Amino acid sequence: MALWTRVCGLNELAPGEHRVTDIEGALVAVFNIDGDFYAIEDVCTHDGAQLTGGPVIGHLIECPRHGAQFDVRSGVAVRGPAYAPISRFPIKLEADAIWSRDDRWD
Ligand code: FES
Question: Is any ligand 1 atom within 6 A of the Cβ of residue 47?
């Protein structure tokens, strides 16, 4: 079972901000959207671009390369040219910090 990795302190990720962390070789982006936290793999399923270079519109992250959009709550691609969902990861808040883990292989 994958171990939890500390992403950052709770007070280090304000609403509207994100933080990218390497978790066991996966690039994981954690977003604070209106006080709620979401973790996704920071890789576009269309052609592998890093998503966090693009704008965040509500709960949508837009790929900076060709404009695909993904909902960070579900991982679903809501606008092409990507169709496959991005991976999502669990979040826990503990010891005044934000934690995530890559549970895809559990
Ligand atoms: S690489 Fe993201 S839309 Fe093409």
Answer: yes
Q: What is the DSSP letter of 48?
A: -
Q: What is the pLDDT of residue 2?
A: 86
Question: Going by CA atoms, what residue is nearest to atom 1 of ligand 1?
Answer: 47
Instruction: Supply the mean pLDDT for the chain.
Output: 97
Q: Tell me how far the alpha carbon of residue 81 lies from the centroid of ligand 1, in angstroms.
A: 7
- CA 92 to chain CA mean position, Å: 14
Between the CA of 75 and the centroid of ligand 1 the distance, in Å, is 15
Please name the fold of domain 5-100.
Rieske Iron-sulfur Protein (2.102.10)
Q: What is the pLDDT of residues 6-34, one digit of tens each?
A: 999 999 999 999 999 999 999 999 999 99
